[in-house]
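quick q for whoever's on today - can somebody do inverse folding on this one?? i tried earlier but teh output was garbage lol. tokens:
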């Protein structure tokens, strides 16, 4: 007869047991007591604990996968094992036993008739009230352990996790533990089980694309093996190229060797025809360019000699671009050198957002700036307004952000000048270079401000100082020459002031120190 000790009914202890193949966890849940007194089995048990393990075999169901790997299309078979945990742990039975394969399918591996009582093969006894307890408690002669049926699974690439494994698991839920005068229900245990996957491709282009054939077998043991790729055919059938597969570039390389057809005569056109080989055609007539601005001849050693005489077209007027047209002769075209340049500092543009918005969008340091709203990608305000907090938050140097600031102001000066019919391109700075050349070197999409340069390198480049010199320079634009309908004229003329657009630092203050820097550029280190 079962003990009715109140403490044994109220106190339950859960144990964790480690199996050979995987980690085991045992969970205890109290639920509605059965209809009749149960029994504690084996005698003296005072804990609930289940050993649950899981392993995998090759397709033959015999050969263990571990410590090996599986291919990305291999068929394997999983098996789970339930075992009495030993020690002071009670025997257990019933419940739902499942194996979840890596494709997410849950397989019921509960034996027909349910999980039998698993306990101490020597000391376990039968429950005298088994009939009243729905047949539970027939524990005498318990095997102590059982294996599940094999569950077949074929590896799929989509089932592979971020660690390169296919994760599976097994679990027993809603089991009964024979502990106390009422069987403890809700006992559960589970364990994950992962297998490493050997990917078929070696990512080497020159030996072909490897595949995985799920029907390819090996010695009746494995099913689903990698298949070597077929090396690419790099021969392009062109006699004028050398053909090879470059293992560094992972591509076929067909190198042109038509230069070998050069016959040493500068007055012939040398080429290699894929079908016929080298062809050397006299082309001395090409030296006659029908250009009234040149004297033309062909020298066998040096080739065509076309002596330029366009210097005669120079009219000594700085406001025109002079050239010699091959058909029409000299052409003297008015340029924009005499049209002037409007310049404003980063501080002006940052605190006059209404004026700044009139000249968007602009290109600066590899980005298109098309909004004045702070903390927004493409914000001109973020480029113009920053603090050391922004530099620190983005792990970059103050010099990097100062260069971006000066570049944005210069780009706005260009835009305002051009919109009004002027140009800043040929403004010459103190180092003798034009602002156009400095902007290309310091502010272009592949310039110093976009390549991750250090603060020291940026500081030593002189870019910040030259751009600051330009942005602080005097206006050379003349309102009398501007288009009266242009935004530039209506904004800055007749006084070249800001015509009613008062300073408003609110947006600049929002951007200053908010930790946001326009994304999309490679910023230099601190």
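ok took a stab at it. sequence:
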């Amino acid at each position: 007869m079962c003990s009715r000790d109140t403490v044994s009914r109220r106190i339950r202890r859960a144990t964790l047991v480690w199996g050979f193949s995987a980690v085991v966890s045992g969970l205890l849940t109290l639920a509605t007591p059965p209809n009749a007194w149960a029994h504690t089995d084996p005698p003296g048990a005072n804990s609930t604990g289940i050993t649950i393990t899981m392993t995998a075999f090759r397709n033959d169901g015999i050969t263990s996968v571990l410590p090996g790997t599986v291919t990305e299309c291999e068929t394997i078979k999983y098996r789970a094992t339930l075992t009495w945990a030993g020690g002071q742990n009670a025997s257990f039975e019933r419940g739902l036993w499942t194996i979840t394969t890596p494709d997410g399918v849950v397989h019921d591996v509960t034996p027909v008739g349910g999980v039998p009582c698993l306990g101490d093969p020597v000391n376990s006894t039968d429950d005298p009230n088994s009939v009243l307890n729905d047949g539970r408690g027939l524990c005498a002669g318990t095997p102590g352990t059982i294996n599940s049926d094999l569950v077949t699974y074929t590896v799929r690439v989509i089932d592979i996790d971020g660690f390169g494994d296919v994760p599976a698991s097994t679990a027993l839920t809603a089991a009964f533990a024979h502990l106390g005068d009422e069987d403890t229900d809700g006992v559960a245990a589970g364990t994950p089980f992962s297998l490493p996957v050997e990917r078929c491709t070696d990512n080497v282009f020159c030996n072909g694309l490897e595949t995985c054939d799920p029907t390819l077998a090996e010695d009746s043991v494995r099913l689903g093996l990698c298949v070597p790729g077929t090396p690419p055919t790099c021969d392009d059938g062109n006699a004028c190229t050398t053909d090879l597969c470059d293992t560094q570039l992972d591509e076929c390389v067909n190198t042109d060797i038509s230069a070998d057809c050069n016959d040493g005569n500068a007055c012939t056109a040398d080429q290699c025809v894929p079908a016929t080989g080298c062809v050397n055609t006299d082309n001395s007539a090409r030296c006659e360019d029908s250009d009234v601005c040149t004297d033309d001849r062909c020298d066998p050693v040096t080739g065509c000699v076309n002596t330029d005489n366009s210097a005669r077209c120079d009219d000594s007027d700085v406001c025109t671009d002079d050239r010699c047209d091959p058909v029409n002769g000299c052409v003297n075209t008015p340029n924009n050198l005499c049209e002037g340049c409007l310049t404003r500092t980063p501080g002006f543009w940052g605190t006059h957002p209404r004026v700044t918005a009139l000249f968007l969008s602009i290109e600066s340091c590899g980005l298109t700036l098309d909004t004045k709203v702070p903390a927004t990608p493409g914000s001109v305000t973020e480029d113009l307004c920053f603090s050391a907090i922004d530099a620190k938050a983005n792990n970059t140097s103050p010099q990097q952000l100062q260069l971006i600031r000066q570049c944005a102001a210069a780009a706005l000066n260009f835009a305002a000048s051009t919109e009004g019919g002027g140009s800043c391109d040929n403004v010459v700075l103190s180092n003798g270079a034009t602002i156009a050349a400095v902007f290309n070197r310091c502010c272009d999409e592949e310039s110093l401000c976009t390549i991750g340069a250090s603060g020291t390198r940026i500081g030593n480049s002189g870019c910040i100082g030259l751009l600051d010199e330009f942005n602080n320079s005097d206006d050379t634009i003349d309102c009398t020459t501007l288009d009266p309908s242009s935004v530039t004229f209506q904004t800055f003329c007749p006084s070249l002031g800001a015509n009613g657009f008062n300073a408003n630092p609110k947006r600049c203050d929002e951007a200053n120190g908010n930790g946001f820097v326009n994304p999309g550029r490679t910023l230099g280190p601190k």
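fwiw The radius of gyration is 42 Å. also The chain is about 15% helix and 25% strand. so keep that in mind when u check it
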